[in-house]
């Protein structure tokens, strides 16, 4: 997921990218929801979906009521949605789907209380989810097919950011995630590259962030393992920024430390597990840098 907030002469837009893997277009959806309640009741939904009986995903707007269940908005026509949703691009390859579109979120050409309309200092919970569609809307996602924010955050602060080219934004921690290089040159050079951008190799402290890093790596670099900011010092694994080693996602049998020189850690975006490896591998890597808010 990658979202950018833009202000064009007082009219606000969200440039939305929704990405998923191991999925097919027909009868499925990927969606972003904005809610006042952490369980996503009464939430505004921006989706890329194909209803039952159609083959191609298109961007749409819908609503989750307080049951909660997803509903099509009564009276909202395709022509209405085309006025709010523009710049649509859909890419599908090898079971991976990337849906891009721009949504106008204020100064709307018509009024409908079930369509998200941005207000200054607006705060929302966020949900990214995927699942199947029905004749009437989106079905409930499975537990492992969603990522939800843990607290309300100002919409403009979430998305009104200026990340370097090639970086995506992680709202809960207000960090830009990415890399200026497709392939690194070992631990020291990779960390130096992150430092030049004002950050460091990614450090991971919970499952939510770990899943986001995996999703970002897959989107930006494909299915190859990426170096993260975890390194072994003697017998102790330490994060590059000195933060607490309070979360781990080692694959079974890891860290293996084969031949005694696998002192660096790599995340596999195919399963989000970690693997130990030598530090001089010429491999992909991900940096995290603090956001810079747009003015």
TrEMBL record:
Protein name (record)? C-type lectin domain-containing protein
Native source species? Mesorhabditis belari
PANTHER family associated with the record: MANNOSE, PHOSPHOLIPASE, LECTIN RECEPTOR RELATED
- Which keywords accompany this UniProt record? Disulfide bond
Question: Which segments cross the bilayer?
Answer: none
Report if keyword Disulfide bond is assigned. Answer: yes
Q: Can the keyword Nucleus be found in this entry's annotation? A: no
Which Gene3D superfamilies would you find in this protein's record?
Mannose-Binding Protein A, subunit A
Start and end residues of each C-type lectin domain: 187-288
